[in-house]
Amino acid sequence: MIVQKDFMNVDNKELMMMKLEFKNISELRSDVAEMLAKSVHEWAEKEVIPYRAWIDDEAEIADKALKKLFLDIGMQKLVVPEAKGGAGISSDDLPAVLLRSFEEIGKADAGIGFVLSALVSASISSMETEVFDYLSDKLSNRLCKIAIFPPQFGKSDFKGFELAKTVPVGDKIKLKGFGRPLNSGYDADIFAVFCNYNGISVAFVDAENVERGEKIKSAGLVASKNCDVKINAEIDKSRISTGNAWKKLYTYLNLCLSALCVGSAYDSCRILREWSEKRIVRGKPLRDNTVDASVIANVIRDTLEAKAVAQMLAMLMLENRDDEEVYAFSIVSALKCSESAFNSADRAMELMASQGYAREGLLEKQWRDAKSIRAILNPNHLLLELSANYFGSRLW
Amino acid sequence: MGVVFLEFARIREFESPLEKYMAEIIRDWGEKYVTPYRRNFDEDWKEHRTIEPALEKLMVDYGIQTAVWPEEFGGWGLGSSDYFGSICARVMEEIGRYDTGIAVSVGVTLWPIFVIAVKPHINYDLCAEFAPLFMRKKLTMAANAMTEPQGGSDIENLDEMKGKTIRTTAKLDGDEWVINGHKLWPTNSGGVADLFGVVCTTNPGVPDEKNFAYIYVPANLPGVKQGEPYRKAGMAADKNSDIWFENVRVPKRYRAWGEGLDAKYFRIIISTGCLGSAGMALGAMENIYEILFEKCSELRYRGKPLKENTAAAAVLADIAAEIEICRSAVYTYARMLDRPDYYGDRFSAEIIARGRALKLKVCDACCRVAEKAMDLLTHYGIDRNYDVEKHWRDVKIIQLWMGGRQLCQMDVARYFYDCKQL
Fold first, then answer.
1. What is the pLDDT of residues A260-286, one digit of tens each?
2. Are B384 and A219 a contacting pair at CB < 8 A?
3. Taking a C-beta distance cutoff of 8 angstroms, is the pair B384, A217 a contact?
4. HSE-CB of B414 using CA atoms within 13 angstroms
5. Cys-Cys crosslink for A163: which of A125, A196, A207, A301, Cβ 3.0 to 4.6 Å?
6. B-contacting residues of A 280-299, CB under 8 Å?
């Protein structure tokens, strides 16, 4: 009985509460990853968290924070060789580094992380190709954003979608496309364009060859300023990454977005935890009511599941696996993590009610951003890809 | 629009001529005064420069603000109609199709009036007092001041808490009530409402429905202070803020009914609130269906319209099925509120539980429909020019208000499983 009494002591209960943070498995821990994550965490504390409630209304907040992250912390130069002023992170270190740092960014602002995800995945996809020199120069000099121009709704030359069209003109390639980039169409410096050159390739086009439409107002991810674009460019063949580059791009994009969503889910948990301690319902803290505790449990379950899947993807990327296999699993990871980030915010909002829905509560921002990532990923299409990959469904 | 959309299921025998007429005028109003402007409503959340003219047209020119008041006071007498529930549901459905924020703003104006102007509980003295305010050719709004900083859903949780956590007090001083308290989040606060229905207690901390008081407070009285509107994820047309009542004095007769009866008739706010919430969520779903119909016919995937691909068609079918079932459920419940002689009082435990069950399911369905629609349209789904994301942001709060999912679940479990300790 004495033990039971102590067990119920409020102070002990506080001690018993597990930390929300959940360290990565040991294989995914490295000094570089931890050091970078610490820098990103400090950046978030200083540049984002104090201003987050206004980030949607005042564009300069996200712009300033993004610039600090990209240049001062050096996230846009992660894979740029040290000789050119970059961090020169090797392929072996990348999964752990991306996992930790994007998780930290996701806790602060998924929109900034989304823009960075595109840049990082596009630049990694060009490593060991001729394009890499061009990109390294661009990324090492000044602030740079890369917009991914994926296959668009239309015809059916890429798994149901339409690739930008290429025509050889002497030593050059003429490239045409119209549609909506995944991110940053309105202010990107470079466009990574999925095109029909030698099968499926990624062409890197300078922004001056791109006509931009009106800036789109969007549900979330405010740091990603997007618009419809018309691409009409003539580029060197050396600006095109061929072979499996597009798959590598998607694999790394899925890793970055998975980690970003894990961070977002953690932030929803943190917000909910603070609320569930303070809010009194039926004469006791919200968390001590079983009906509410079961919802809280689902929020943390979703978050930890996402974390597990994202780590699994990072581990697979470190092993000597078939690219196709890793690519397919990266789809699972992105789907799961984006779903979890949204579910965590959505169900947390269920308990926080109007306080979760209000801008000042910050949860609703995670909710809008997580849903935006989820929708942009095009889950219905990705599910078909999984069926094709794992069951050999002949869909395209 | 060009395309004539199919009507989702309901029993047409119970459709009143007035309801049909109102649906037509609301659609006409929506196309002219809402659709062209609604994409800018989010920027107009504080000033209501584009929102207020739309509200004024509907409430004053089309006369909705007079609808519930008895005919002898210049109203339409909706409170005495055998189609009370069906008309309320239809009005919310049709307005919700265009903007659920406007729907709640309209619905909440009618809400406090239900307590005193719906048969069999019509308080003629209070109708005579307040109806003239709404008969003016001037936009006149009302609000239900219920939620408090410390109480949250406990205030609405009458059956369990019996008003124990209400901290807004009403003390009788001679022939006047003196009201003190702080309310949060009422729709139409932030300077919109002219009249508040205020949930108070006459004996704080004591769980007894006799202490529950519902008192009408004109917004322009000394001691009534309102804060700035809150910024929210959506629902820009619905202004919410803090209201402080500091020694606000109103005549004794402004209490709706008196000891015990206030709590009893207040429950019509729960049943109609559930119906209204489900009705406007239904309208939003129908508009999402219309948008999907159009966009999934335009967007091409695998060389054919998106809707002609079986995977997309399956999602579209799920959405249509949700709406089909929800509409029939909304109008079944509306019919129950039409005819208390068949189905029981609108404030009875049974009707409340059925209303909570309806709100729970329809709001969940609505959120699901909006989420699926966004996923289907992918980066067009999050684009504000496509309106789906606006509905998605707006409808979430419908699921959360009135105590949210958890209170709905408790009320449903209490009635359907005869729970004694919830």
1. 999 999 999 999 999 999 888 888 899
2. yes
3. yes
4. 20
5. A196
6. 280-282, 291-292, 295
DSSP string, A5-51: HHHH-HHHHHHHSPPS--PPPGGG--HHHHHHHHHHHHHIIIIIGGG
Residue B22: C-alpha distances to residues A368, B25, B30, B75, B290 (Å): 35, 5, 12, 15, 20
Least confident range of A10-24, A59-73, A178-192: A10-24
Q: Which residue has the tokens 């240049």?
A: A71
Nearest to B179 by CA among B191, B164, B168: B168
Helix (H, G, I), strand (E, B) or coil at A324: helix
Question: A196 and A164 in contact (C-beta within 8 Å)?
Answer: yes
Contact in structure between A223 and A114 (CB atoms under 8 Å): yes
What are the tokens at B305?
């319209």
pLDDT over 90 percentage in chain A: 87
The residue behind tokens 């919310």 is B92
Q: How many domains does chain A have?
A: 3
Q: How far is B388 from chain A (nearest CA, A)?
A: 10
Residue B374 contacts A, CB cutoff 8 Å: yes
| DSSP H or E run through A111 | helix A110-125
Q: Are B256 and B214 in contact (CB under 8 A)?
A: yes
Residue A15, pLDDT > 80, answer no
* Distance separating alpha carbons of residues A267 and A104, to the nearest angstrom: 10
| Topology adopted by domain B12-139 | Butyryl-Coa Dehydrogenase, subunit A; domain 1 (1.10.540)
- DSSP letter assigned to residue A77: G
Q: Cβ of B16: how many Cβ atoms within 10 Å?
A: 16
3-state secondary structure of B156: coil
H/E element, B185: strand B176-187
CA A348 and chain centroid, separation:
21
| B404 contacts A368? CB cut-off 8 A | no
Query: Chain A: nearest CA to B233, how far in angstroms?
Result: 6
Q: Kindly state whether B252 is in contact with chain A, defined as any CB-CB distance less than 8 angstroms.
A: no
- Phi/psi of residue B402, each to 5°? 55, 40
Task: Reply yes or no on domain B143-258 having CATH 2.40.110.10.
Answer: yes
**pTM to 2 decimals?**
0.95
Q: Which residues of B touch A356 (CB under 8 A)?
A: 400
Chain position carrying tokens 């005869």: B418
| Backbone phi and psi for residue B32, each to the nearest 5 degrees, phi listed first | -85, -40
- The residue range of the domain holding A123 is 26-143
Which amino acid appears at position A125 of this protein?
S
Number of H helices, E strands in chain A: 13, 10
Quickly tell me which residue has 């989420």 as its tokens. Answer: B371
